[in-house]
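Quick one, probably user error.
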């Protein structure tokens, strides 16, 4: 074997840390030299290089998810596309991490203006101040929306890309919606907007006052002690919007 080829093999191993198959490819692409893998392995051993240690693949770190201690500490926001009678609609959902209370609203358009309107809806509906919102980076939730949230005195956080589990509670509520509500209205013609809004509001009310108690028995919001003023917005939080 020519000395320059041997030196090239040594360079590939010493400088780049390549194994025999990759050295073979490197020699062919860079130096136009064709050698067998067994020949390269023998040459590497003769040069006195130690075997390459296989590195274990690192498992992605699992995020530690935890419960928020106070209502309003973190409100998860997400948007779900629904089709009823061939008509596309968008269900905006906000879910409080601590109490599991939800506010829903249906929109015919998915854009910044719908998101901005929904921000006002959840601020009126939740019976406690909102300290932080979080969502994915959907096109309907652009930087302008994040700035509007911060101007309202609310912190805003985008979840990490490809990590839907960070918004797992609101995502899970959408799956339950599919099973318990939308599957029952997809088959036929679309209900009238007012009727659909009332049906969705009833489902939202059942979630708020029944499901949340089982998910969080220590829920600080007691529906039996709530005033009519604080109850009504959540009950009416699901309406058809243009």
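Nope, works fine. Designed sequence:
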């Amino acid at each position: 074997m020519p000395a320059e080829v041997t030196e090239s093999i040594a360079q590939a191993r010493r400088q780049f840390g390549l194994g025999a198959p990759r050295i073979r490819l490197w020699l062919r692409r860079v130096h136009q030299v064709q050698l067998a893998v067994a020949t390269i392995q023998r040459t590497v051993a003769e040069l006195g290089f130690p075997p390459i240690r296989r590195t274990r693949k690192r498992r992605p770190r699992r995020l530690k998810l935890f419960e928020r201690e106070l209502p309003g500490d973190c409100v998860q926001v997400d948007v779900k596309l629904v089709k009823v009678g061939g008509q596309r609609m968008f269900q905006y959902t906000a879910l409080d991490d601590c109490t599991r209370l939800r506010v829903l609203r249906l929109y015919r358009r998915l854009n910044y203006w719908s998101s901005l309107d929904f921000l006002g809806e959840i601020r009126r509906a939740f019976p406690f101040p909102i300290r932080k919102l979080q969502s994915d980076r959907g096109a309907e939730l652009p930087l302008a929306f994040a700035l509007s949230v911060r101007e309202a005195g609310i912190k805003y956080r985008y979840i990490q890309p490809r990590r839907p589990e960070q918004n797992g509670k609101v995502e899970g509520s959408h799956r339950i919606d599919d099973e318990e509500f939308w599957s029952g209205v997809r088959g036929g013609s679309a209900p009238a907007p007012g009727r659909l809004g009332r049906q969705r509001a009833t489902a939202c009310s059942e979630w708020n006052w029944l499901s949340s108690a089982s998910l969080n028995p220590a829920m600080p919001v007691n529906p039996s002690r709530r005033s009519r003023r604080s109850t009504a917005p959540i009950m009416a939080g699901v309406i058809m919007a243009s």
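Residues 209-242 have pLDDT under 50 and may be disordered.
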